[in-house]
Amino acid sequence: MGLDMYLTKKVYVKNWEHTKPEEKHRVTYAKGDEVPKEINPSYLEFEIGYWRKANAIHQWFVKNVQDDVDDCRNAYLELEDLEALLNVVTQVLEKVIIENGDVYNGESWSKDTGHVVHYTPGRVITNPEVCEELLPTQGGFFFGGTGYDEWYLQSLEYTKDILTKVIADAKTEFDNHEWADYYYHSSW
User: What's 149's DSSP letter?
Assistant: First the structure.
């Protein structure tokens, strides 16, 4: 249970009678030990990014792509949307000051010690105002922590890696006259 987030790519692969043989897609499908059979789908959809409880990234999508409506629907993304998010993530990573410190890692209760707050060693951001301005966290039911620390940094670094690759691939595909649509959706 919690905030799960997906970036998907939908590729048009329909083969028409008039499609040149060298431009046709060959798609096969098999389940278990079945003999693969050739199929002719219109689209193939691929998961190209997955986040878990990266609530700052989720909030960016809700605010910038979903018109502030957080309803777990598929939201169509332009390449410019992905570039804009990459730009914000890169700005934050370039501007934050990171130091080693104690990272909040949950709480527990025991009858012997009572309420216990757990911390682990990790990276913390000492100028969180940069994050608050550019890419703030968002609280929510099982949305993960809202601190500007190791978990926040990991989600940004992961996002930068994913988007850098997706954008480069999309530009190459465009140059090769291959078309794909991109979508974001969440589940919580």
Answer: B
Mean per-residue pLDDT pooled into runs of 10, the chain (188 residues)? 92 89 90 93 94 96 96 94 98 96 88 90 95 93 87 97 95 79 94
Give CA–CA dist 8/64, Å, rounded: 17
What is the C-alpha separation between 160 and 170, in angstroms, rounded?
15
pTM of the model: 0.87
Measured CA to CA, the distance from residue 4 to residue 55 in angstroms comes to 9
Give me the phi and psi of 123, to 5 degrees please: -95, 140
And the tokens for 136?
């703030």
Distance CA 55, CA 28 (A): 37
Q: What SS3 string covers 157-185? A: HHHHHHHHHHHHHHHHHHHCCCCEEEEEE
